[in-house]
Amino acid sequence: MITLTYRENMQDKTRLKRDFDSLRRRLGALGGFQYVAVAERQQRGAWHLHVAVKGRQIYRVLRSIWHSVVGVDNGNIHVRNPFKERGRKAILGSTSCRTIRRRLSKSRRANILKAAK
């Protein structure tokens, strides 16, 4: 599980999408990058991303690419190793996983409501 943040109070969702797209393309060029990403606002209003990825990721590469996209002094990346957690319940119960599940279920409900109209 990866959390991508900005040091600045970045409130532009279009920029968030553009920055993540740039990161995703660069990582995809290095090999397969399969993910599920969810954008969320912090309490201060700044956007950040929770990204669940398939397979092992190299922290230094992720950090280097994210810094090249948002600026060395502007971004941070937090990587949680699911194998260091204890059991499946710990992984599925983590804050980031709960956020992704909650956002996906909201979007699924919204799509069901749109389809019903």
Automatic annotation (TrEMBL):
Domain of life of the organism encoding this protein: Bacteria
- Give residue ranges for domain Replication-associated protein ORF2/G2P: 1-67
Per its UniProt record, what InterPro entries does this chain match? Answer: ORF2/G2P_dom
In Swiss-Prot or TrEMBL terms, this protein is called Replication-associated protein ORF2/G2P domain-containing protein
Record organism: Paraburkholderia rhizosphaerae
Classification from the root reads: Bacteria, Pseudomonadati, Pseudomonadota, Betaproteobacteria, Burkholderiales
